[in-house]
Input
Amino acid sequence: MQRLLHTLLLAAALPALAADEPAYGPRLEGFDYPHPVKKFELDSQGQTLEMAYMDIKPAKPNGETVVLLHGKNFCAATWESTITTLTGAGYRVIAPDQIGFCKSSKPEHYQFSFHQLSANTSALLSSLGIERHSVMGHSMGGMLATRHALLNPEQVKQLILVNPIGLEDWIAKGVPYRSIDSWYESELNASAEGMRKYQKSTYYAGTWRPEFDRWVDMRAGMFRGEGREAVAWNSALTYDMILTQPVVYEFDQLKPPTLLLIGEQDNTAVGKATASPEQQKTLGQYPQISQDAAERIPNATLVSFEDLGHSPQIQAPERFHEALLGYLQGSDS
Output
């Protein structure tokens, strides 16, 4: 009740939306995806939930399937150009929105864990008759893809990590723990302006192009809509998951061949702003932490883009996809 009252008071104080600022529903209603969105119904933690996903089949299939796992501030739709590239090369692509994100259910009570999200993803794949598959995760999706590969060593053929977060344990490196209620209050104050500023500096290495605004509007629009409190609450729960469930200590247990595609201008570190100035300088150093990860992961290949940021697949899609296909097709031959 206290959380609801706080939300209502904050909403009443918000200024009217500008005409060019879209507002979407809590399940991203009103925002179009590049391919038809289907819904997978599953029973999880005593409730029935819906997991949105795209299943895109190639015109000339090569018999391989790639599962794309989005990051925390992203959705399945942000894989748009990667989907086009992969299906054009013959791969079937499954791109889900995880529970709590984008077009999927936003449960009020849910124990978020990478184990649970992996189990949800496995249930979706089983319903589609997919067994052996490659998995590619970006940002938070890299943590999930790692956990999924650890849990399913016989099913995951290849693991691709695109600027994954979780290459370091932030709490162990001095980031203070932050309560879920604190994250929730912060997320309620999220704005397109703040998102754009952060994305410019982190996702795109200080550059900006008009097409990037679509992804700002996608996320910011959910925080403007009438379901914004559900979106903010699920976002807060998943921040807690990210900070308290590191995967970095298990990299040496990974079985599938692993490709790391890293934009070296990235400096992402969840909670970095609450660390001391001295500690902040040591966090999110992707040239070093990606190298450390590649040395710890058996059968790892590291491809770095020294001028790109956190989202190389969006910032420089041609270069990114050339490296991706070179690896996948070389492994398939």
Observations:
- The mean pLDDT is 94.
- The two ends are 58 Å apart (CA to CA).
